[in-house]
Design a protein that fits this description.
187 residues; single chain; Aminopeptidase
């Protein structure tokens, strides 16, 4: 598996998360409502955020891309990928509330899916989300992920023991979606 290449589109740049992103990401990770469905509770200090993101800045199993607007090097959130088995990765993401409703999460996740499926040739990507996290579920469905399972009492979190929904997407499904979008007439 390769490192963390910089991924770009007309409006976004995804680059490796850096410790210096802690101040911008504290805004995201201290948002109590946003963190409801995260595995840990809202952060209380920038130092806590710095310690939390530091492992994502080096080697390790998770690759974390900071989501930034092109020409602005301020992290709005991130997309993570972790190879769980040969050619199978788990994906996760979080985005600052002011960036919601602009298609940024969908675009950023799509850029990482292109990296995983096209550049790296992985066969499957999966995500897990809380059954009550309607925004994440909607994003996964828009991206073509299929609901594959419901695990009961899977996670112990800051809000108690929670179920999780598993969603999966196969390389061939992603490539077919891309081909369909490319063939669709522009509006």
């Amino acid at each position: 598996m390769s490192g963390r290449p910089v991924l770009t589109s007309d409006r976004l740049t995804l680059r490796q998360v850096r410790v210096s992103d802690a101040e911008a990401l504290f805004e995201v990770l201290s948002d109590a409502e946003l963190m409801t469905w995260w595995s840990s509770g809202p952060h209380q200090s920038i130092e806590e955020t710095r310690a939390y993101i530091e492992p994502a800045t080096g080697g390790g199993g998770w690759r974390s891309w900071a989501i930034t607007r092109s020409g602005e090097d301020v992290a709005l959130g991130w997309v993570n990928a972790h190879q769980r088995r040969e050619n199978v990765s788990e994906i996760g993401y979080i985005l600052a509330r002011p960036a919601w409703g602009q298609g940024i999460a969908r675009e950023a996740v799509g850029m990482v899916l292109d990296q995983l499926f096209i550049a790296e040739g992985q066969r499957r990507v999966f995500a897990d989300t809380d059954p009550e996290n309607r925004f994440s579920i909607a994003l996964l469905k828009k991206m073509g992920f299929q609901l594959e399972g419901h695990l009961r009492a899977e996670w112990e979190t800051h809000i108690g023991v929670r179920d999780t929904l598993l969603f999966g997407l196969l390389r061939d499904e992603w490539l077919a979606q891309r081909a369909d979008r490319a063939a669709a007439p522009s509006a």
